[in-house]
Amino acid sequence: MKERGKIKMKTYELNANYDARNSFYGKAKVIEQDNKKTLISYNTEVATIENGIAKVNDTYSQTTLRHIKEFLLQNGFKADSKKEIEQNYM
After folding, report:
1. Cα separation, 47 vs 42, whole angstroms
2. What is the pLDDT of residues 41-69, one digit of tens each?
3. Which pTM value belongs to this model?
């Protein structure tokens, strides 16, 4: 965990725990800082979870949508479909 001043930050690859793929091959990473988790997919910030509230910026491509679903599921959110994600987190 890196420290910038008093802010602690941790960065790691998103694992494919719920997805059928074995890996996302480094295309998705998570940055944790204080009470906020940020999902980066293909170098673009696509979703955040802060203080228990998930927000998705857009669903982008099919692959990025897979990253978003995985991120939400790993953090205890329901993410069965694109429609559900758009209704609940955008």
Report:
1. 12
2. 999 999 999 999 999 999 899 999 999 99
3. 0.90
